[in-house]
Structures are given as structure tokens and as C-alpha cells.
Design a protein that fits this description.
182 residues; alpha+beta; YbaK protein; 5-stranded mixed β-sheet; 3-stranded antiparallel β-sheet; 5 helices; globular
Length: 182
């Protein structure tokens, strides 16, 4: 699958449009296929936030698994949580063993060279990054996540994703979505 990005620039006094193509990372497709993991590919117009993607895919924001990258010095962590929730930074030291801050795109984009910035799939292990998932997603039967581009997503059974991604499951979010408290 290819993604279309248009960049606008001037060439010889004329407005020129440059086209760039980005595909779903082959390492992701090969990994899922090698593990016989069922998934559904979804295509949509370019979207750049988790809530926008949930809206265009016509799913509840709670089913969209957004990726938030955190850092502490040279260490990075991939946090996966529902689009309708936010990270509670006060809970992170007990989870990660240190204080973590939000990583800027410039600080993490080199970790995901085959992905568009901000569209990395929630498989940190494929990129050498520890993955944490908020417990509120564990109650879902399926999740939808960005698949390396801003026009491709995947729908997958949550338990299958958890089996393959090997995340640390913990309570680290707050927000308007379902509570993780029983």
C-alpha cells in the first residue's frame, strides 16, 4: 500500500507539486505474517491525530490505540493507550523506574526510519523500544492502530496484539474514556 504526500515548492517560477510515497513498513507486515496473525488493513484520508483517525475509521476513540513516545536521557519508551485518554505522568516513575518526559518528534523519529513521523505502529519490540500498554485497552476485543503511515491503519484482536507485542500492561492513563478501576 502506498501513501501520497504532496509537498509544494517553486521551480522556475512555477508552483510544483512533489509526490512522496510511504508504504506500511515491510518489517511489520513480515512480522505479522510470520506469526500468522490475523489483521485487517484499513485505508483512509491523511489523519494526524488519534482522535481524527478514530473518527474517520468510525470507531470509538477507546478502540484506537495511540502511541506516545517518552524519554529519559537516551532511553525511550513506547506508551500505548486509548485515543480518548492521556498519560498520568505521576504514575510513570513506579512503572518505568524513573521520571519520563514527552519526547519530541525530532527525538524519536530516527528510531522508526521506515515510518512516517508520528504514525509508528504499537510494536516497540520491532524497533528496540520497550512497550507499555494501558490496562484500559486490555478489556477491548479489538484495537485499531496506525500502520506506519498517516493513511494506513490496522485492526487487530487485542489479545493477538498483546501476544505479539509483549507489552508491560499497567495503569498509567487518565481521561474521559473508560476507567481502569474495577
Amino acid at each position: 500500500m502506498k501513501m501520497y504526500l504532496a509537498g509544494v515548492g517553486e521551480s522556475d517560477g512555477y508552483l510544483a507539486i512533489r509526490r512522496y510515497y510511504m508504504e506500511i513498513p515491510s518489517r511489520l507486515i513480515h512480522f505479522l505474517d510470520a506469526h500468522h496473525a490475523p489483521y485487517e488493513r484499513l485505508q483512509h484520508p491523511p489523519r494526524f491525530t488519534a482522535q481524527e483517525l478514530a473518527e474517520v475509521e468510525h470507531i470509538d476513540g477507546h478502540h484506537h490505540a495511540k502511541v506516545v513516545m517518552l524519554k529519559n536521557g537516551d532511553d525511550s519508551a513506547m506508551m500505548v493507550l486509548p485515543a480518548d485518554r492521556m498519560i498520568d505522568f505521576d504514575k510513570l516513575p513506579s512503572l518505568t523506574g524513573r521520571r519520563m518526559t514527552l519526547a519530541s518528534e525530532d527525538e524519536f523519529k530516527s528510531l522508526f526510519p521506515d515510518c512516517e513521523t508520528g504514525a509508528m505502529p504499537p510494536f516497540g519490540e520491532l524497533y528496540g523500544v520497550p512497550t507499555y500498554v494501558d490496562r484500559t485497552l486490555a478489556d477491548d476485543d479489538f484495537i485499531v492502530f496506525e500502520a506506519g503511515t498517516h493513511t494506513d491503519a490496522m485492526k487487530m484482536n487485542y489479545r493477538e496484539w498483546e501476544r505479539l507485542a509483549h507489552p508491560v500492561v499497567a495503569d498509567f492513563s487518565i481521561g474521559s474514556g473508560r476507567s481502569s478501576a474495577a
